[in-house]
Specification:
The protein has about 190 residues and is mostly helical. About 45% of the residues lie in helices and about 5% in strands. The chain is built from 7 helices and 2 strands; from the N terminus they run ααββααααα. It has a two-stranded antiparallel ribbon. The protein is globular, with a radius of gyration of 18 Å.
């Protein structure tokens, strides 16, 4: 069931991340670093139609959104070609045909991975890497029938609790951290 996303064909890993909302958690961490925005100012909104790909609220209260057909090729095309605009690769959004846009607040008690990603981001240092690596390993364990779907956030939380945060690190440290997490989670 978790692999059957209603709107996207994203591959097994990303489909599970979507089902746990970890994909949104990782996007929150990315937005923090890419745009230097405090975590308390980054809000996840569930948009079941998958037409709005991003929104930015300005200090005057206005919101600018990027909308397109339910296909990630358009936001990727936009990002790669910015600031230029070229012909759409996927056709144009028909707002009459797609005339309903709804929004929901995420349930972080049910979708604990989103909450864990926020926590990892706020702690900073190596904690976002621990969260991401543990998620990759947990999803792999789930896809290989070694843990249940609901165990994914349990594995991530266990890893986040076990590893001490470092605030001064380099790439080699992260690679070593990944190996340590893989070894820790292999016992499951």
């Amino acid at each position: 069931m978790a692999l059957k996303h209603p709107r996207w064909n994203m591959g097994r890993k990303i489909s599970i991340d979507s089902a746990t909302l970890m994909n949104k958690g990782l996007e929150v961490i990315e937005a923090h670093y890419l745009f230097d925005v405090d975590y308390d100012n980054i809000k996840v909104v569930i948009h079941p139609q998958s037409i709005i790909h991003s929104m930015v609220e300005y200090k005057d209260g206005s919101i600018i959104a990027q909308l397109s057909n339910t296909d990630m090729r358009h936001p990727i095309q936009y990002a790669l070609e910015y600031p230029n605009r070229t012909e759409s690769l996927i056709g144009y959004l028909d707002l009459i045909k797609n005339n309903t846009l709804t929004f929901e607040e995420p349930d972080t008690e049910t979708f604990e991975c989103l909450k864990l990603a926020y926590e990892a981001g706020k702690v900073g240092g190596t904690m976002p890497a621990v969260c991401n690596i543990a998620n990759e390993e947990a999803v792999d364990l789930f896809l290989n029938n070694k843990i249940k779907f609901l165990d994914i956030p349990v594995v991530i939380k266990e890893a986040m609790n076990k590893f001490e945060v470092e605030y001064s690190f380099n790439l080699e440290y992260i690679i070593d951290l990944e190996k340590k997490l893989e070894n820790m989670l292999e016992v499951l």
